[in-house]
Amino acid sequence: MASLLDFNPNYSHYWSADSRDALFGAHFNSLLSQFTGFSVCHPIYNEQTMNLSLRHAIYSAILSIEATASFMFLPSWNESIITNLVLRGLNPSSLLTAYPLLCYKLVTNPANQIAYASPQSWISQETPLPQASWNLHSTAVWNTAARLHLNKQS
Asked: Which domains does the chain have, with CATH numbers?
């Protein structure tokens, strides 16, 4: 769930929201494969995509026999996002509370503390990146094997 310009090259795999990025080694549609191992998931800021990604991470953790943890970054657009999602039959908050052994909110980063790294290359003129206007929740979706593994490491 990254673009060619914002994925970490130290990771062995990355998934893109754009199928054309397959030319550069990206996998397309991360929801077609089960999340396993330890991963970072920062879905595009689309309500349905965020809900599907969270649901997929939860089910991947449930179904995996190996240590599986997805560290998700989800924006908090005040309470209006929750209201809109509930009206559409989607609600990330209810998913998080429905699976308390799998989902754990690690930290909420306030909007004024969020800083974006500048892209390493620009197509044309450098454009200043805007300051975030929403908080960002860091959430772990993990199974027991992943929690035990991380507890041993720290």
From this structure: 1-33 (no CATH), 35-112+132-153 (3.30.110)
